[in-house]
Amino acid sequence: MIAWDYDLLADKIVWNNDTEFTGTDTSETRLSLFMRFVHEKDKKYVEEKMRQALEHTGTFQAEFRIYTPQTGDLRWMSSYGKALHNENGEVYRIVGVMYDITKRKILEEQKEDFIGIASHELKTPVTSIKAYTEVLEQIMTEKKDPATAGLVSKLNAQVDRLNDLIKGLLDTTKISEGQLILKPRQFDLNTLIRERMDELQMTSHKHRLRGDLCTDGIIIADRELISQAITNLISNAIKYSPKGCDVLIKTTRLKSSIQVSVTDSGIGIPEADTEKIFQRFFRVTTPNIQTFPGMGLGLYITAGIIHRHNGTITVNSKPGVGSTFSFVLPDGKKEF
Predict the structure, then answer these.
(1) CA 192 – CA 230 distance, rounded (Å)
(2) How confident is the model at residue 174 (pLDDT cuts 50, 70, 90)?
(3) How far apart are CA 31 and CA 93, in angstroms?
(4) Does the model's pTM come out above 0.85?
(5) Could you point out which of 41, 74, 274, 307 has its C-alpha 20 to 30 Å from the C-alpha of 286?
């Protein structure tokens, strides 16, 4: 681990004596020198994270690649820093640490490969099983054997559920590899939301889905993917409101974008987990939530879809009160 101290006024970084990760001599202290070792594809990312820390958040946190000068090896680093302010409230220093996460990144890549291969291999046999169950259900119905047809129908429903799980895994692989392909077209977002509300209302009798939709919902986006994101958010609102409540779906037209929010009065999310809620496979682990099924993929996929559309997604939640998930989509004038 390396400890560092960045003096903004002097444009100098002071490192501790352990410079193994970068090979930088402690006498060479300019920030621009360190940026020379950062991978070309990560330079803008690191610079943007530093800019955000200086101008807005006060916290620098980034994972990026560097080349080691001694061997030229490519290594992954994780860095965290905190801004210090003078008496006028201006940032004059950032102090932090940086450590090697190459082994972790290699393991993550291996996991990605396994998930991708396993998902593709499962897709073909499950598709065949789906076809066989539909044929069996039709045969049993024609033979007027309702008991057996009912069992096959339940089997068919479980195959559909398995298909959804496989699709979710494939979607996460595409998102993590930046290969989520968009098919943008113009459509009315409000019409899409009403369709999702009508369909999901039929699956839940304890909850009432209410809409507060703006007058202009026309956007340019991938309708199928946005439909998936909306379905995930409404389904979660229903799922985590076990006692039943109203779920409000609201759209608001902004200057050059449109905002969608889904609000429930469910069990809520602890504050410590709100920053992790969009991570893949992350699930809130409190005594009240352990009984709910799921793989922790829905919100990760939803966030991936929104980010792919150059949008943003946030959550505002309080345990015992409820949650509001909101995302903002551009009006479609920007290229994807």
Answers:
(1) 9
(2) confident
(3) 12
(4) no
(5) 307
Q: Which of 48, 32, 41, 81 is nearest to 64 (CA)?
A: 41
Nearest in space to 250 (alpha carbons), one of 261, 242, 241: 261
Q: Are 181 and 170 in contact (CB under 8 A)?
A: no
**What DSSP designation does 296 have?**
S
| One-character DSSP codes across 50-116 | HHHIIIIISEEEEEEEEE-TTT--EEEEEEEEEEEE-TTS-EEEEEEEEEE-HHHHHHHHHHHHHHH
Half-sphere exposure of 191 (CA within 13 A, CB side): 8
Query: Which amino acid is residue 235, in one-letter code?
Result: S
Q: Please tell me the distance from the alpha carbon of residue 227 to that of residue 199, in angstroms, as a whole number.
A: 12
Average of per-residue pLDDT values in the chain? 84
Helix (H), strand (E) at residue 2 = strand 2-7
Tokens coding 152: 């096959």
In three-state secondary structure terms, 331 is coil
Closest CA to 83 of 72, 95, 98: 95
Query: What percent of the chain lies above the pLDDT cut of 70?
Result: 89
* pLDDT over 70 (residue 188): yes
Residue 6 confidence (pLDDT): 87
Closest by alpha carbon to 37, among 15, 10, 7, 59?
A: 15
Residue among 326, 312, 295, 308 nearest 168 (CA): 295
Q: Using a pLDDT cut of 90, give the percent of the chain over it.
A: 29
Reference 289, options 303, 304, 277, 307; nearest CA is: 277
